[in-house]
Design brief:
The protein has 424 residues and is an alpha/beta fold. It has helices spanning 2-14, 165-181, 200-209, 244-254, 256-260, 270-298, 335-340, 344-364, 371-376, 389-395, 400-406, and strands at 20-29, 34-40, 47-51, 56-62, 64-66, 78-86, 89-96, 101-107, 115-122, 142-148, 186-190, 214-219, 231-236, 304-312, 324-328, 380-382, 419-421. The strands form 4 sheets. A 6-stranded mixed β-sheet has the order 11-10-12-15-13-14, sandwiched between helices. β10, α2 and β11 form a beta-alpha-beta unit.
Length: 424
């Protein structure tokens, strides 16, 4: 019995360590960086280093093995992926088009993915600021930053028919930008222009870097009850959520950084946090005005969820000096909403109402030195019963064309209660 026990122990200690399997790779490219994500069977040890002539990044992983071939599509930064196994060590080589800086980290499993090794590649070059107008320029356009939620490694919510939230939000963001750019005195800035992930903080930082006057984050989330449907407008709450749905949505959206693969930075010191909170109070007041204006416009045409307005602690809305709102365009978990969110006609109707609400907000609270501020100083007329556009133009000594241009109207039809801004 004693000899048998010794034999068993010897066999146990001479068995080779189980290899970590590299299951596959996904690669996402954005304007600022390219991200390669390797799916692992478990957490792994690795060593990463860069080589020149030609430029490449090398990852050595002891006691690891490749499960499948690593194939990539055409990529702006990575030319090819090579790999080899020697002495129970896996070597993966990323051949690059040019020299890039690399950053890597491991991620633990979450609701969507298992263990992952993330490699971020970026250059030292900073992207050029796309905005020509600055806040000091007279008669400048107001700038609306439009943020399409999720992207890349993070698909967001997925509908019953397989619709991914990240695709829906990008489609709506692009349509909204197009509609906004048709308005005189307004210009759209799209935060995420393709299928890649941007962490929450970088989203509103990009808006601030481009001197945005308003930040609008577009989402189409899921709820545990598939019957829940309709659109909603949300603003930041520092205290708590205004409803169960608001709390659920905030928790869901705030997890995006861990799914998208982000290393959380150190918390701010106490003094910085105090200054941050003080400056954010003013932005929150304007956020409330802007969100109310969009909500009022949407409810005329779009089906809302409940009251359609709420507050919750959304990370993406925490810009200290840019008024911000989050629009849930519908619940992708609801079959009816999922169908609407893929319907171009519905999207066009939705984005028109959002644009009208944004426009109304800026006419009520125009930023200094903007074209809209110059128009808003003029007279206003609230349409009464019996009013016609020609009659209003005659009464105020202007033309139908001038009124239509100032108010971005495409038809001569007016509605009771409609506010018309009269040209100066």
């Amino acid at each position: 019995m004693k000899n048998s026990l010794i034999t068993i122990c010897l066999i146990y200690f001479t068995l080779p360590a189980l290899a970590v399997e590299v299951k596959g790779v996904r690669i996402w490219s954005g304007p600022d960086q390219t991200r390669a994500v390797f799916d692992l069977s478990e957490s792994a040890k690795y060593k990463l280093f860069e080589l020149d002539n030609p430029p490449r990044v090398v990852i050595d992983m002891p006691q690891s093995a490749l499960k499948n071939q690593l194939n990539i599509k055409k990529n702006k930064d990575i030319k090819k992926v090579r790999y080899s196994n020697r002495n129970d060590q896996l070597r993966i080589v990323l051949d690059l088009h040019q020299k890039l800086n690399s950053k890597s980290f491991l991620l633990k499993p979450n609701d969507t993915y298992g263990h992952r090794l993330v490699i971020d590649l970026s250059s030292d070059k900073k992207p050029l600021n796309k905005t020509v107008e600055k806040v000091t320029k007279k008669n400048r356009d107001v700038i609306i930053a439009i943020d399409a939620g999720h992207g890349g490694e993070d698909p967001g919510a997925i509908g019953a028919a397989g619709t991914k939230e990240k695709d829906v939000t990008l489609t709506i963001a692009k349509q909204l930008a197009q509609t906004i750019n048709q308005q005189k005195g307004m210009k759209a800035l799209i935060i995420r222009e393709g299928d890649y992930y941007i962490k929450h903080r970088k989203r509103f930082e990009k808006a601030r870097d481009h001197d945005a006057d308003l930040f609008v984050s577009i989402h189409a989330d899921a709820f545990h009850n598939r019957k829940v449907n309709g659109a909603s407008v949300y603003i930041l709450s520092q205290r708590g959520a205004s409803s169960e749905a608001a709390k659920w949505l905030a928790l869901s959206e705030n997890k995006a950084d861990s799914i998208g693969g982000v290393v959380i930075e150190d918390k701010q010191d106490v003094l910085s946090q105090v200054l941050y909170d003080l400056s954010q109070n003013a932005a929150m007041e304007e956020s409330h005005k802007a969100a109310q204006a969009v909500h009022s416009s949407m409810k005329k045409v779009v089906k809302l969820h409940g009251q359609g307005f709420g507050q919750a602690n959304f990370l993406v809305l925490k810009s200290p000096d840019v008024p911000s709102m989050l629009i849930e365009t519908g619940y992708i978990s609801n079959p009816g909403d999922e169908k609407n969110l893929k319907n171009p006609s519905h999207i066009k109707k939705l984005t028109k109402q959002i644009t009208d609400g944004i426009r109304n907000y800026f006419y009520q609270s125009p930023p200094p030195n903007t074209w809209i501020a110059a128009q808003a100083k003029g007279k206003k007329h609230i349409v009464q019963s019996g009013d016609t556009l020609s009659g209003i133009a005659s009464k105020f000594g202007t033309s139908i064309a001038a009124i239509k241009s100032t108010n971005n109207k495409s038809s001569n039809i007016v509605h009771i209660g409609e506010i018309l801004y009269l040209p100066n």
